[in-house]
Amino acid sequence: MPSRLLLLPLALALGPLAPPPPAQAQTQASQASTVQPGTAPTAADDLLYRELGGRESIQAFTDDFYDRMLQDARIAHYFDGINMKYLKRVLADYFCVVAGGPCVYDGVGMKDAHAHLGIDRAAFNALVENLQLAMDAAGVPFGVQNRLLARMAFSHSDIITK
């Protein structure tokens, strides 16, 4: 399990270095445009959303994810003074949209949301680790977790600012 937790952050960090296959690049570009504030998903397929268990399951693992981060001394300080109820809702909406679900993300863009935080690669990896642990606890299969993380990989450069 620990080695698996270390490989995904590395894959997320290195993934953008190699160009994706053309079909995947088109899909990623389409997904990237679906997570702008106030937009509805344009994914033609909601399979990943359904495999994640739908909106209720996504909200449950998102809540657990934030609870874990607040207990993680490596990254808890990033959430000081944050409205966690709001943040849990908008991140669940973000995951839902990225997965092709029928949600609308009305939060700010990832770059604007994280620009002032000075997040480094170690903090980002801790975040991914906590997300994986939350999805594990929710019973989300490893392959489904990887597909969600792969769809979000494009945003890592907007989150790591230090």
Instruction: Tell me, briefly, the overall form.
Output: globular
Q: In CATH, what is the class?
A: Mainly Alpha
Counting helices, strands and paired strands, the structural category is mainly alpha
Level-2 CATH architecture: Orthogonal Bundle
Terminal CA distance: 28 Å
Please tell me the overall pLDDT: 79
Query: How would you sum up the major sheet?
Result: none
The CATH topology is Globin-like
Total beta strands: 0
Can you tell me about this structure?
The protein has a single domain, classed as Orthogonal Bundle (Globin-like). The N terminus is likely disordered. It is 62% helix and 0% strand. With 162 residues, the protein is mainly α.
Keywords:
globular, 62% helix, mainly alpha, Globin-like, 0% strand
Q: Strands, helices and their partners?
A:
Elements: H1 2-14, H2 22-33, H3 47-51, H4 54-71, H5 84-98, H6 110-114, H7 121-137, H8 142-152, H9 156-159
Q: What's this entry about, in short?
A:
The chain has 162 residues and is mainly alpha-helical. It has nine helices and no strands. It is globular, with a radius of gyration of 15 Å.
